[in-house]
Design a protein that fits this description.
Shape: globular
Strand content: 15-25%
Bound molecules: adenosine-5'-diphosphate
Structural class: alpha/beta
Number of strands: 13
Number of helices: 10
Largest sheet: 9 strands, mixed
Radius of gyration: 19 Å
CATH class: Alpha Beta
Distance between the termini: 30 Å
CATH superfamily: Ribokinase
Strand order of the largest sheet: 5-4-1-8-9-10-11-12-13
CATH architecture: 3-Layer(aba) Sandwich
Length: about 325
């Protein structure tokens, strides 16, 4: 039976405004270019899974104002049978990208917060991926359904971060994998009341993240925790259940770029999609030993690096063959 992934998440229209500098309070600026593309963390991660070669079903909603988004997602290879068309406006992300490739984003939730009709989870589903751009209650309901099936691994990327109250009552025991960036790791430790050590300002990103990862891993001992570090790579702590014994955290530096950073939008989503595709056995079979999991991380790091070399979110996610060609 081939692995199959469910993504329950957001779909947006991404509007990219190319600007010299990101607007400051009180300032009016002109954009040099405007491009509209499908986006939203749910759609982006589903797109990365599809580009990595996975069978992926997306559950979400768009408005009647942008049915083209669903068509484009279908063309990307995503199963969109459960992407409903609802009365609310399609979710929207207004993204300013400056000359350095840095971005600033305004999100409008729209249809992502509409209720979707009841949906079935495909019986072949082996992995399920969640973010936090839809109501947390909808995410929790789906995680609980998936966790009640011993064959489904659940993966949560809590972005944007839920509130401290929501995080305190979150059912961490239902999660197989948690994926956070370094800022989210810090926020999560604070929200959960985990002591955050002072690290020297000169410490590397990995050394700053290590104690956070250790605290998160002890708080959720059955969850594998992956912390992305932007241009500094990734740090991961696997559970004893995964590897059959205790292991040290794994650090991988970021991929070597061809050229400069053009746009970091969607790098995290590309990383998540490729990581999950790797866990599904695409690219490396079987995935069982520590070395196999490191190879999965390495492929995800390579894909995310290639994503920042190009503009756009979904549009900049590379194909599996392109990633393969860049791995040593
Ligand atoms: P998020 O987009 O969720 O904030 P990060 O910024 O940590 O996540 O990026 C996710 C991954 O993308 C990183 O672990 C890294 O592999 C890759 N990445 C991000 N920025 C760069 C960069 N400037 N150069 C190379 N790789 C990058």
């Amino acid at each position: 039976m081939p692995a199959r992934c469910l993504v329950r998440g957001s779909v947006n229209v991404d509007e990219f405004f190319q600007v010299k500098e990101i607007a400051r309070p009180g300032e009016t600026i002109s954009a040099e270019n405007l491009v509209k593309r499908p986006g939203g963390k749910g759609a982006n991660q589903a797109g990365a899974l599809a580009r990595a070669g996975a069978i992926v079903d997306l559950v979400g909603a768009v408005g009647q104002d942008a049915p083209w988004v669903r068509d484009e997602l279908r063309e990307t290879g995503i199963g969109v049978g459960d992407v409903s068309i609802v009365e609310e406006h399609t979710g929207r992300a207004l993204i300013q990208v400056n000359e350095l490739g840095e971005n600033s984003i305004i999100l409008y939730k729209g249809a992502n917060y509409a209720s979707v009709p009841p949906y079935a989870i495909h019986p072949d589903t082996t992995h399920a991926v969640f973010q936090n751009e839809i109501p947390l209650s909808s995410t929790l309901e789906c995680i609980a359904r998936c966790a009640s099936s011993s064959q489904i691994s659940t993966i949560f990327n809590p972005s944007p971060m839920p509130t401290a109250e929501e995080l305190k009552s979150f059912p961490w025991h239902q999660l197989t994998w948690l994926i956070v960036n370094s800022g989210e790791a810090l926020d999560l430790c604070r929200a959960l009341g985990l002591a955050v050590p002072d690290t020297s300002a000169s410490a590397s990103a990995a050394d700053t993240a290590r104690p956070l990862l250790a605290r998160l891993s002890s708080h959720m001992p059955t969850t594998n925790v992956v912390c992305t570090l932007g241009a500094d790579g990734v740090l991961a702590q696997f559970t004893p259940t995964l590897l059959g014994g205790e292991s040290e955290p794994v650090y991988l530096p970021a991929a070597k770029l061809q050229g400069t950073t053009r746009d970091t939008t969607g790098a995290g989503d590309c990383f998540t999609g490729y990581l999950v595709a790797g866990l599904m056995g695409l690219g490396q079979k079987p995935v069982a030993t520590a070395a196999d999991y490191v190879a999965v991380l390495k492929r995800a790091v390579q894909a995310a690096g290639m994503c920042v070399e190009k503009r756009g979110a979904l549009a900049s996610i590379p194909l599996a063959t392109q990633v393969e060609a860049r791995l040593d």
